[in-house]
Amino acid sequence: MNPSTESPGSDGPRLGRPRDGALTDRVLSGAQDVVIEQGPDRLSADALAAVTGVSRAAIYRRWPDTAALLAEIVTRCRPVPAIPDTGSLRGDLVGLLEPWTRALDRDERLVATVLGRARHSPALRAGLEAAVVHPLDAAVATAVDRHVARGHEVPAAGRVLLGRLLLALWWERYVSEPAATTDTVVAEMVDRALLPVVRST
């Protein structure tokens, strides 16, 4: 996808023209399919036009290049589940790690596919931060704040370490694409790796 070599033609960019939401969603969904099934290097205006039936001109109006399109796809992903309110920090963290009990879903597969490419793309790194880093930060803040509200103390260092460990677990999941595990193993991860750092002083 390279506007410098493929001209949009007479149906070029129109300043101030609003996006067609349904068409945009169709392109983004099609782009996600292409990336997951064929890899990010196969993403192009021609590939998207073939998959979605949307003209190359319409694609160029929305995204100047592949990096911008990839970043938007990733930003729209929701690979981090909402953290449940189970009444305990342990239960909340076990619920947060529910993805480990199943194979990677569609959004996770996209993140796993583009992760290495983000090293060379600031836009894609920003998309991954929006999709993974910020939701995990929010989940940690929610879980710890609930724990404190129940009358427990959490050292500042413990809050930071919990966030770092969870982020490391998430990246490791996408890099290694492990098989689904059991609820028992997830609970052991929480008991042996996560809760001790929250309780440290």
Question: Can you describe this structure?
Answer:
- The chain has 201 residues and is mainly α.
- The protein folds into 2 domains: 21-64, Homeodomain-like (Arc Repressor Mutant, subunit A, Orthogonal Bundle), CATH 1.10.10.60; 76-199, Orthogonal Bundle (Tetracycline Repressor, domain 2).
- The chain contains 9 helices and no strands.
- Helix 4 (66-76) runs parallel beside helix 7 (122-149).
- It is elongated, with a radius of gyration of 20 Å.
- The N and C termini lie far apart (52 Å).
- The relative contact order is 0.12.
Summarize the structure.
This protein has 201 residues and is mainly α. It has 9 helices and no strands.
In total, the number of strands is: 0
Shape: elongated
Q: Measure the end-to-end span.
A: 52 Å
Low-confidence stretches: 2-17
**What is the residue-mean pLDDT, rounded to a whole number?**
88
CATH class of the largest domain: Mainly Alpha
The secondary structure category is mainly alpha
Q: How would you sum up the major sheet?
A: none
Helix-strand pattern = HHHHHHHHH
Multimerization status: single chain
Helical stretch count? 9
Range of helix content: 55-70%
Chain-wise SSE layout:
Layout: H1 21-38, H2 45-52, H3 56-62, H4 66-76, H5 89-96, H6 106-114, H7 122-149, H8 156-176, H9 183-199
InterPro entries: DNA-bd_HTH_TetR-type_CS, Homeodomain-like_sf, HTH-type_TetR-like_transc_reg, HTH_TetR, Tet_transcr_reg_TetR-rel_C_sf, TetR_C
Region (Disordered): 1-21
Keywords: DNA-binding, Transcription, Transcription regulation
